[in-house]
Structure formats: structure tokens, C-alpha cells
Amino acid sequence: QVQLVESGGGTVQAGDSLRVSCVASGRTLSGYAMGWFRQAPGKEREFVAAFSRTGGYTYYSDSVKGRFSISRDTGKNTMYLQMNNLKPEDTAVYHCVAGRGVITSSITSRTAYDFWGQGTQVTVSS
Q1: 41-74: string of b/e by CB count within 10 Å (b at 16+)?
Q2: Are 18 and 36 in contact, with CB atoms under 8 Å apart?
Q3: For the chain, what percentages of helix, strand and coil (3-state, to nearest 5) are there?
Q4: Closest CA to 14 of 68, 96, 86
Q5: Residue 56, Cα to own-chain centre: how many angstroms?
Q6: Per-residue pLDDT tens digits for 5-33
Q7: 108, 113, 115, 116 alpha-carbon torsion, rounded to 10°
Q8: 25-34 burial by CB neighbour count: b if 16+ within 10 A, else e?
Q9: Which of 12, 25, 43, 84 is most buried, most CB within 10 Å of its CB?
């Protein structure tokens, strides 16, 4: 079993930056794709960014490309999402995810991931 715990959310102004973190525990995540999804009020969870299972590739949604950056520290079992130039439409609960069987064609699909964190709230005011 894998436990994922997010932190670092908060309330910021439009144009500000924020970094959220995800600490993984329970088993080695070698061979797992890991990433971030978000869910805004009244909307479905949507893909934000992810690492491939090998960690060699990163993927971003069009809405965050160029503003958000995903990174990780394997020694600390921690993944980060650096969010720059935040917009009010980025307001959502951000969830960390991990999946063993995620392939390139399913990297943006929420059903491809086996483990989800509880999420951390990010609110961007205009």
C-alpha cells in the first residue's frame, strides 16, 4: 500500500507563486508514474502534470504548461509542483497520485492511477 500526503497549499494573489509537496510512504515507488490532478468546485478532477514510470519524461496539461513545473527528490520520496503566475482558475484541491500500470496513452487519465492523496487546497484570488 502507498500513502501519499500533500502539503503546501494556501491562499495567494493572482500572479503569485506557490509550491505544493507530496510525501510518499509505504513501499518503494520505483516503476510508478506519479503526478498531480486537481478538482475545482463543481468540476471533475483534471490532469495537471505527471512523471512517466521511468521518471524520464514529464507531461503537462495545456492550461498549466509554461507556468507549472513538476520535480521530485527520490531520496526523500517527495514530489513537488511549482506553480508560477497563478490565476484564479487554478483554484482547486490538488491531489498527488501514483500508478503502477500507467502508460503514455493513459498518463492524463484519472482512472489509470491506483493511489491518491487527500489533497491540499490552493486558492488564488484576483
Answers
A1: eeeebebbbbbbbeeeeebbbeebeeebbbebee
A2: no
A3: 10, 50, 40
A4: 86
A5: 16
A6: 999 999 999 999 999 999 999 877 778 99
A7: 30
A8: eeeebeebbb
A9: 12
Amino acid at 12: V
pLDDT digits (tens, 9 = 90+) for 55-76: 889 999 999 999 999 999 888 8
Are the C-beta atoms of residues 96 and 68 closer than 8 Å to each other? Answer: no
Q: What nine digits make up the cell of 54?
A: 521511468
Cα–Cα dist 33/4, whole Å: 13
pLDDT over 90 at 42, yes or no: yes
Distance separating alpha carbons of residues 7 and 2, to the nearest angstrom: 17
Burial (0-12, 13-18, 19+ Cβ within 10 Å), 125: exposed
- Cell reading at 18: 506557490
Classify 91 as helix, strand or coil: coil
Secondary structure (3-state) at 105: helix
Q: Looking up cell 507563486, which residue turns up?
A: 17
How many whole angstroms separate alpha carbon 118 and alpha carbon 53?
A: 22
